[in-house]
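#struct-help
A.M.: can someone run this one for me? Single chain, 310 residues.
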Amino acid sequence: MSNVIGLYATYERFTPESLDQGETAERGWWDSGNLLSDEKPPEPAFIFDPELDFDENEHPSVVDAAVAWAADRLKREGAIHPSSTQDPEWWSTESEVVDYASGETQVRSFHFHGFSDEQVEAINTILFGGEAKTLATRKVDFTLRALTAVEYTLTVDVPVDADDDDLFEIAHQLYDETDGSEYHDDGVTWDEGTHCWSEHDESNNSQSVECSILHLTFRVTPPANPSAASYQDLINEADYHVRHDLIEGSEIIEIDDKSHRVIVSARLHHAVTEEGAQDVAESLSHDFRDTGSNSVFDSELLEVEFPMWV
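D.P.: on it. Structure tokens below:
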């Protein structure tokens, strides 16, 4: 019985005398054979049968078919009164005349059994006159993109019938709900870009972060007779080039006098993974020149990495 999905039915009968006293004349359970009983029957009066009630051409899943079945059954039984205006647990009929001679009337109520909370919510939404959302889902990988720096890919369960317009809205909502400070410390770089999505590949469950900014750390050794008085001035005044097909621009962002380390921030045409960043490093060309003497400094690429906020 644990896997059965259906609707238990109860009844309450009233006579003119019981109504005068504000009481019920009789109450009990309505079983699957339309027989009245004082005890709860072993199974619901109405049971959802996937083999009979699920049509893959009409329903995106068995879960959604059960929702449609329950809503239709309740409507056919005349159950129009919810037990409450919010999250009702059962629905009841209007008072029905059982015996015109005695004036006896009856109210039937239908109680959810075996449905998930999401299914009950969907059924209630339909009976309240709304349109229930599709409960069946599929996994989609969303890549959220900021205009200048970060791409963040995450896997989300979306309605199985969601189209591109739906996925666009989901991506926008995910972006709004994502705290950009998790990936950077500069609010400008989390301006919304153009997101993308793809069907999730179960064979690859890892999330990934991609970035279109690389920090390149060089050791730059000055010449024996530098034209500038300080290392800082020498590097700031130097004519330097960092070349790769993916690099569209760069700037020196940090200079360390003691270690002679120079960090260059390189902006790429598109985002790359950490593995892609190492590929850039392997085929990178670079040089630093003294603008006064035009002599070339000894330079060595020590490290390539994403910014600290990625």
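A.M.: thanks! The helical segments are 16-20, 50-53, 62-76, 117-127, 164-177, 231-237, 274-282.
D.P.: also worth noting: The chain has three domains: 6-127, 137-206, 212-305.
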